[in-house]
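Input (structure):
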C-alpha cells in the first residue's frame, strides 16, 4: 500500500450523515397492533387486559405510548402506585385485574380515548418530534425547577426578600453552592437545597455530592434544610437512605417533601425566631 500524508480537509469533506433504520422487530409488531387497534369512544379495563394478554411487553409499550411517558417515567409512576409490588409479567399474571386497575389510575382510559379519536393534522408528526426531543429535556428541567419554585414561594412568605437564591455561600473554611441562603450568602444561618429527582442531568451522585459539599462548608450551627420530591426517589432507596443518614447524623436538619409543606413553613418561622432574622 502506498504511504501518503492525508489532509484534514479531505477527511472532513468525505464525511456524511449516518442514517439508520429505527424500526426493530418490537417497533414493527407495535405499529402493526396500533394500526389494527379498535377505535372506540370509550375504553374499559377489558381493553387494557386484552393488550397485555396478547404480549405483555408490547402491551406495556403501547399503553406507555398512550400516556406519552418515557420508559423511566412510566416505571417510576407505576412503582409509586404499586408500592412494593412487582410491575413485571409475573405480577400481572398473578392478579391481572388488580394490575390493570393500577394502570387505570394513571388516567389510561381517558388517554386511550383521546388518542384513538384524535383528528389528524399535518403537523402532528412534527409536534411529536418536538415533544420527544426538545420537549423531553424541558420536562426534566421543569420537574427539577418545580420543586425549587415551590420551596421559593414558602421561603418568600416567611422571609420576604431577605435571602439569596441559587448562589454560592461562604462558610468558615470553604464555599458551596445552594438554592437558598438565608439571610444572605455571606453568612447564612439557614441553607436550603431542593431536588426534584428525575430532572434531566441530575444524577444521584451529583445530588449526594452537593449535599456533602454543603455540610462541609456550612457552620455547625447553620441549619441545612433539604426539600425534595419525585417518585423516582423510590427507585433509589439506597441513595435516599444516605441522605436520611446525613439527617440522622446532624448534617441535615430536616428533610421535606410537598406533603410536608406546612411543616416546612412552620420550621422556617421557628428558625426565624430562634436566629432573630
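Output (sequence):
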Amino acid at each position: 500500500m502506498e504511504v501518503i500524508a492525508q489532509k484534514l480537509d479531505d477527511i472532513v469533506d468525505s464525511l456524511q450523515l449516518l442514517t439508520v433504520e429505527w424500526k426493530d422487530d418490537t417497533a414493527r409488531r407495535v405499529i402493526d397492533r396500533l394500526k389494527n387497534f379498535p377505535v372506540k369512544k370509550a375504553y374499559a379495563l377489558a381493553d387494557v387486559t386484552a393488550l397485555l394478554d396478547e404480549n405483555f411487553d408490547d402491551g406495556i409499550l403501547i399503553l406507555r405510548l398512550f400516556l406519552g411517558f418515557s420508559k423511566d417515567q412510566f416505571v417510576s409512576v407505576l412503582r409509586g402506585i404499586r408500592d412494593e409490588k412487582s410491575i413485571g409479567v409475573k405480577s400481572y399474571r398473578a392478579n391481572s385485574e388488580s394490575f390493570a386497575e393500577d394502570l387505570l389510575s394513571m388516567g389510561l382510559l381517558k388517554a386511550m380515548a383521546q388518542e384513538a379519536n384524535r383528528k389528524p393534522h399535518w403537523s402532528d408528526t412534527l409536534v411529536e418530534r418536538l415533544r420527544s426531543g426538545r420537549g423531553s429535556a424541558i420536562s426534566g428541567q421543569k420537574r427539577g425547577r418545580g420543586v425549587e419554585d415551590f420551596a421559593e414561594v414558602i421561603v418568600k412568605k416567611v422571609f420576604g426578600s431577605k435571602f439569596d437564591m441559587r448562589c454560592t455561600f461562604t462558610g468558615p473554611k470553604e464555599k458551596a453552592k445552594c438554592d437558598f441562603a438565608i439571610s444572605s450568602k455571606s453568612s447564612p444561618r439557614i441553607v436550603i437545597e431542593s431536588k426534584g429527582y428525575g430532572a434531566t442531568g441530575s444524577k444521584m451522585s451529583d445530588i449526594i455530592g452537593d449535599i456533602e459539599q454543603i455540610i462541609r462548608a456550612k457552620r455547625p450551627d447553620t441549619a441545612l434544610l433539604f426539600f425534595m420530591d419525585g417518585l423516582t426517589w423510590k427507585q433509589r432507596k439506597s441513595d435516599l437512605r444516605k441522605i436520611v443518614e446525613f439527617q440522622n447524623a446532624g448534617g441535615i436538619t430536616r428533610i421535606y417533601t410537598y406533603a410536608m409543606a406546612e411543616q416546612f413553613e412552620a420550621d422556617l418561622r421557628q428558625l426565624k425566631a430562634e436566629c432573630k432574622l
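Notes: The radius of gyration is 25 Å. The longest strand covers residues 175-182.
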